[in-house]
Amino acid sequence: GQPKDIDVKGFITMINKLHHGRDHLLLCICTSGRRSLVVADLLRQMGYPNSLSVAGGFQAWKKLQVPPAAA
Question: What pTM does this model have?
Answer without folding.
Answer: 0.74
